[in-house]
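The authors assume throughout that readers already know how a fold can be written as discrete tokens. The format is easy to grasp once an entry is in front of the reader. For illustration, here is how one protein appears when written out as sequence plus structure tokens:
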Amino acid sequence: MAQFPDIHEVDSNGQRLARIRMRHRWTQQRLATEAGYSLETIKKYEQGRRSLDRPPVILRLARALDCHPAEITGGPIVPPDADRDGQTAIAAVAAVRRALLRHGRPARPTEAEVADLAMADLRERTEELTRYRQAASLAKTAEALPQLLRALQVAVEVQRGDEQRTAYGLLTSAYECAMQYLYKLGHVSDATLATERVQWAAQETGDPLRVLAARWYDAGEFLNIGEHDEAGAIIDEALTVLTQMRRRTPEAISLRGAYQLKAALNCARSADSTGAERHWKRAMQTADTLGQDRNDWQLQFGPTNAAIWGVSLPVELGQGRVAVDRAEHVQMPAHYSKERQSHHHIDKGRAYFYNGQRERALDEFLAAERLAPQATRMHAGVRETVGTMIRTQKRGQLTELGIRLGVV
């Protein structure tokens, strides 16, 4: 594995929190009072002696300081110069942003673009892009995404009838890849813009399930900024529609399960452990009914994914022991996407860290990096947790990982 020797100091979430607090001219005691934490906890966060990586905590501090959570977690993420794949990954951000801004505007295609238009080719390219996403290959995603977005925007303008609806379906999938690509790189505002495009394109497909799948991401946008009531309203509305649908197809059942997991996450982010457990158990029941792992509209759901979320949710709540115990029972199929496998290793790493098992945590982060190097190195939770580990325990492989992450 390549080593990146350019060692430099990078701000921790706690340091960014301190700067935001001082902008408000607040004392640490004022922030502690407003956010509902002890003064000692705030001091530990700001000094980097305690990892500030849990979204519920970050959201609570962000609400107190009236800032976006991304101001605390940092971003966009800039990989070290020696990380060539990382540099390739960020090279297309401007081109993807331009394509997103052009959504709904006249494409003004050239004669050559119209002549080259072939729906079979566009479908194949979109499927390939989706495979890049599932493989967590940000560099390959970056190379393919701008040109494909342009071609699909031309297609939805030129095609008519069923072919146009098909083109909008492909464009929806490409926008979803753009959303995930931008989010992983820390371009939060651009990712939000991509989420809006996902919904607009989905509306044009004429498929009610596709529209509901797009709304799943919309709920996530509100969840990520701590608007739990709004996220909950979107989730409840979608679950009501899915319950009332006469179609009991595998796609509809899978989508219902995905929304139940989103409901569980919304509860976890608002520190409602009881609600999170209740919705997760409902999702497990739905997964049993479905009886198979599916990946409709890039929303993985089934027995395996529900079990994986059973680890993710207690991690969100800081319940390391529960997460570690559940992780022991997860059977990860070999064919599961590298993106999902690596994220599971990240969750396990954070769980071991909360449980005080730092060596096990490091092993899991390294396993995630082997599966998905770029996605792991740019994961905000990994960067913060590893940074905290390094500040309190510098040694060998841990420092080397920190260098590749760019946190030392």
Notes: The longest helix spans residues 161-184. The beta strands are 294-296, 299-301.
